[in-house]
Amino acid sequence: MKKVISANQSVSHAVLAAKAQVIAAYPITPQSSIVEMIANFCSTGQLHAKFINVESEHSAMAACISASVVGARTFTATSSQGLALMHELLHYASGLRLPIVMANVNRALASPFNLKADLSDSLSQRDTGWLQFYCESGQEVFDTIIQAYRISEQVLLPVMVNLEGFILSHTYEIVDIPEQSEIDRFLSPPAPRDCLNVENPCLFGGTTDFYINFRYKMHEGMERAKIICQECDVQFQEVFGRSYGLIQSYLCEDAELILVTAGTIAGTCCVAADQYRERGLKVGVLRIRLFRPFPGEQICLALGKTKKVAVIDRDFSPGCGGIFAQEIKSILQGRRGGLPVYEFIAGLGGKDVTDEDIGRVIDQTYQNPEPGGVTWIGLLK
Amino acid sequence: MDRATKMKFPIPEDELLYSGHTACPGCGAVLALKYVLKGLGPRTIIVIPPSCAGTISAPFPFSSLKIPVLRIPFETTAISASGIRAALDVMGKRDIHVLGWAGDGGTFDIGLQALSATAERNDNIIYVCYDNEAYMNTGIQRSSATPEGAWTTTTPSPYLKDTPKKDIVRIMAAHKIPYIATASVGYPPDLIKKVKRAKEIVGTKFILIFSPCPTGWRYSSEMTIRIAKLATETGIFPLYEIENGEKYILSQRRPQKPLKEYFSLQGRFRNLKEEKLLRAEAKVKKDWEYLTRLAG
Amino acid sequence: MKKRYSLKSLEEMPITAISFLTTEGNETGEWRSQRPLLDLEKCNQCGLCWMYCPDNAILPEKDSFQISYKYCKGCGICAKECPKGAILLVKEKR
Fold first, then answer.
1. By residue range, what is the domain housing residue C35?
2. Is the minimum CB–CB distance between B6 and chain C shorter than 8 Å?
3. Could you give the dihedral angle defined by the CA atoms of residues B14, B16, B22 and B26, in that order, rounded to the nearest 10 degrees?
4. Does C59 map to a domain?
5. Which of A66, A256, C26, C33 shows its CA 20 to 30 Å from the CA of B223?
6. A247-376: which CATH topology?
7. What is the pLDDT of residues A41-76, one digit of tens each?
8. What pLDDT does A165 receive?
9. Partners of residue C45 in chain B, C-beta under 8 Å
10. Residue range C38-51: average pLDDT?
């Protein structure tokens, strides 16, 4: 059924459809409306779940971890400061190989305070062993949460679904919410796994010098995840008629210049790409949807025979540059080492990224023979 | 059976702790665990943060407990217990007890926020704090449960702990949870009786267990039970219960023994000055009078 | 505790640190520097030594109790708490 809802509400509807059993969350702008709606679903009995009103995001993730170890399907949502507060527990969750699903509404990290879209919060957590998706629309948010439950329960790694604060979270779009029977066809109740239970008592999470072996198993899990995410998306297409892939490419096949980005900036890039195509310049756009595990092979394939790559990061790693840019440069190494990567940082703290800004990116990339460092778009003079 | 009639202090016979664990000889904390598990039985899930208990529970691939254990992050004992409770309830397994098991560091200090929240929500869990009055597992560093005048590695003489022990029981009473009790490894039948009482109540139950530590308190290991009893007999660790944060029930008679006897047995109080001892005696007397007034 | 896992290979390990063995193989009796000796003549089977042992190293045996030297760490609590003085601590011979 088609509804006009915000991406935040899409998250809530997806959690309802997925029949999450334990939800623990703490309010933070711009995520709060996700859990408000879920709390409503729980109180009306639509969602048969326990909703724990925790006193911090750290406790929210702790509750999800322990509930998941006992076998429940769990959910939490957060943003920036809350995600940062959960940091140690993100490692904990992936280390225990728990299928937790979390929605993160991307918001800039303080200090200074800024409530708006910035991907640095989730990208700072890229080493925590969570799968990460970056969405572009309310529909994709709904669909990805449903996919996330299936993927996490197959791979036994937690999944973070990211959506930009305000640009997505508070923007109303048409979202098609499938019938529950269709959802149930795609997403079955969780398969049995090693859980805490009194019939077969074990100790979970002990101290060990075999640590390196468990980390290797996590690596194997991440490698498997690339395949499982792909398969899941194909099956999603079969049931619901929609798919997204691990990456999405627009006019890349014959492009001389490909813009690479994540999230809603990709949509603006497509508008700019069309404008430049009218002028005879062959621009393509590559949106990275799955960031962890990083789909290096698919990206290299999609970049094809292009001559230049311009990466637009709505994020920043101080002392280094844009995070997507670093990852792109590193996977090109050894595969297409000669392909120049032009690095741009834009849109931090929710600063609007317009088609004119993208035009500036394209112009600069075309005009400069060499990349030469990071260019920041949108600064004061 | 013959043995039951001859035994002076019958407590449940079944052990839920395996031998071969690595607690120090004479450890009070592992005694606390032994007794609480006897009180709760095998249909119990326990969450343990980094602590002596965490180490005693044994490294992978071993476990020293006969019940399921989850090793949890330090701050999260109360909320981890709440999370398990929520999951079990949703899955219909309401008869399984959920036990949060933390030391004084993990309760009075780093775990206090989560504990307060769990108590405020009145989540149906049993939270036990075994109190050995310092961060013993990491090498005897001071916590807010360390008594005034005690030596620890982070309060070396002459900078002995100069503030009183945090009154965690009064803090928990302020949350008006259905059941709070103080207990001691010196009195196992009383401890187990309190655990069994807690087991029957729905809501947040908090039990503080006095757990002497030979390694950190600097006494010879065979004295653990003596010291535990002396703490109660001198009144420095009184035994009582609180229902709904308001009704106080004493589990002991008036303390008769002088506090000096308790302090003199422990190396950590070796440098206790006379004026500090007098202050401690006054405080114990005042606290006891306050308790008897509340108990009516 | 069912033994489904082993440490012989990566495949046989669990996916995360899930313990599948008990500590019963750890003979903490090796720690002892003093050993308790129970005099059954003096013992009145009150059970206090059994109750107070932190290592469950005093086991019920027929009408009385027996000390398990496999696990006893020699802490001495049993000797201290015995109301009949039926437990004597002697230096452990090595």
1. 26-91
2. yes
3. -50
4. yes
5. C26
6. Rossmann fold (3.40.50)
7. 999 999 999 999 999 999 999 999 999 999 999 999
8. 97
9. 3, 6-7
10. 94
Q: Is A319 left (phi over 0), alpha (psi -120 to 50) or beta?
A: left
Structure tokens at A312: 């637009």
Q: Is there a contact between A214 and A41 (Cβ–Cβ < 8 Å)?
A: no
Question: In this structure, is residue C1 part of a structural domain?
Answer: no
Chains that touch A (3 or more CB pairs under 8 A): B, C
The residue among A23, A59, A87 with the most chain B CBs within 10 A of its CB, best to mutate, is: A59
Give residue A338's pLDDT band: very low, low, confident or very high (50, 70, 90): confident
Give contacts of C24 with chain B, Cβ < 8 Å.
18-20
Q: Are A84 and A58 in contact, with CB atoms under 8 Å apart? A: no
Residues 6+ apart with CB under 8 A from B287: B235, B238
User: What digits encode the pLDDT tens for the residues A98-130?
Assistant: 999 999 999 999 999 999 999 999 999 999 999
Task: Locate A198 and state its tokens.
Answer: 């009194």
Give the residue from chain B lying closest to C64, CA to CA: B3
Q: What is the CATH number of domain A2-188+211-240?
A: 3.40.50.970
Reference A375, options A22, A367, A364, A366; nearest CA is: A364
Which residue do the tokens 């307060």 mark? B116
Query: B63 — contact with chain C (CB < 8 Å)?
Result: yes
User: What's the half-sphere exposure (Cβ side, CA atoms, 13 Å) at A314?
Assistant: 34
Nearest CA in chain C to A220: C15
**pTM, two decimal places:** 0.96
Q: What is the mean pLDDT of residues A170-189?
A: 97
- Structurally, how many domains does chain B consist of? 1
